[in-house]
Design brief:
About 30% of the residues lie in helices and about 25% in strands. It is of the alpha/beta class and about 350 residues long. It is globular and about 65 Å long.
Length: about 350
């Protein structure tokens, strides 16, 4: 039997629990170490999840001295970049939770570190593993729509504002944009082959988060709870994007792909934030000169998309293949979020410039 894949987990908050539960379902994986900056917290995590033989550290650099095949980075957003870079430079493959980073500059450093170390940097976007998301991607990439010139995407929750580290500018960097907006962007950009963004004109607000009527931690709320943007890409593509943690509305609408030959309408389920699945998919096209709507069957499935995300990372390590969701792609997602925040603050259109990697 081949040796087991040795995994370390950095950060022991709620999302780390989801990672370890996925790893524990895999007979070919050992979680051998956990690190958390808060003294004793890693050991508590190890005991809670019954990680027999695993070692706990207060300093992730000590964890990275071990012989590990891969690392899950589950820290607060602000340290995604530095922790991932440390792990890559230490020769470990990295699965980092979303968002990839706080700034574009950090994302660039992460990708460069992975390339230099020849180690995998994969970003944890589990909606990629939803079979219906894959159907949308396959339809767009098939060419049925022709050249896509306009996309509307995004989503919102009527009341879905988290607290704690999520609302701290220092720890999270951004609010709804980084938390759930990255999923909406990835859905359409991945389907389109991750085109290059050029400019962003955006607005952001936090009317709900800073109001004690709507949030119990309003006095500490520092990030945006809503954002929208018009994003221009190479190839005469424009994306209308909007995202919100809270609003006086039930939905911000479906995702629409408008192509020169056909259009595609994708309606989200649940909160409409694209982390809850898809209700319907429909193709709008002409048949014998008649405008026609063709429903695409939505697959009923029991796929654990979080598990599949983690499993794909492990399999990529075993097979020596590229990152399942490579940082080289998601850097464009991060660049857009960075641009929206800059545009929202300056109240003007800004350029997006991604340096050569």
């Amino acid at each position: 039997m081949a040796s087991k894949v040795r995994i370390g987990i950095i950060g022991s908050g709620g999302i780390a629990g989801a990672h370890v539960r996925a790893y524990k379902q895999m007979e070919d994986v050992d979680v051998v170490a956990v690190a958390d900056i808060i003294p004793g917290k890693a050991d508590e995590f190890i005991a809670k999840h019954e990680l027999t033989g695993a070692r706990g550290f207060d300093d992730h650099h000590r964890l990275l001295e071990l012989e590990l095949d891969g690392v899950s980075v589950c820290t607060p957003n602000v340290s995604h970049s530095s922790t991932s870079v440390d792990a890559l430079r230490a020769g470990k493959h990295v699965l980092v939770e979303k968002p990839m980073s706080v700034t574009l500059e950090q994302a660039v450093e992460m990708v460069q570190a992975g390339k230099k170390a020849q180690r995998m940097l994969s970003i944890a976007f589990q909606p990629r593993y939803d079979p219906n998301m894959q159907t949308v991607r396959d339809i767009v990439r098939s060419g049925q729509l022709g050249d896509v010139y306009y996309v509307q995407t995004g989503g919102g929750r009527r009341r879905g504002m988290p607290g704690g580290t999520f609302i701290s500018k220092e720890l999270a960097g951004a609010g709804a944009l980084a938390d759930i907006g990255c999923y909406s962007l990835d859905m359409v950009l991945n389907a389109l082959g991750y085109p290059k963004p050029l400019t962003v004109s955006a607005m952001t607000s936090n009317h709900f988060g800073t109001n004690p009527k709507y949030h119990s931690q309003a006095s500490r709320f520092e990030v945006e709870d809503f954002g929208m943007a018009m994003i221009r890409f190479e190839g005469d593509l424009t994306v209308n994007f909007k995202i919100g943690w809270a609003m006086h509305m039930d939905t911000l609408g479906p995702t629409l792909f408008l192509g020169k030959d056909a259009g595609l309408k994708v309606t989200p389920s649940g909160s409409g934030a694209w982390d809850g699945g898809i209700t319907s998919i429909a193709l709008y096209h002409d048949i014998l000169g008649h405008p026609t709507e063709s429903p695409i069957p939505v697959k009923q499935h029991n796929v654990n998309i979080f598990y599949e995300k983690v499993r794909d990372f492990v399999t990529a390590i075993q097979e020596g293949r590229p990152a399942p969701i490579p940082g080289e792609d998601i850097i464009r997602n991060q660049a857009i979020i960075d641009g929206i925040l800059r545009s929202g603050e300056s109240k003007r259109e800004v350029d997006i410039v991604i340096p050569e990697l």
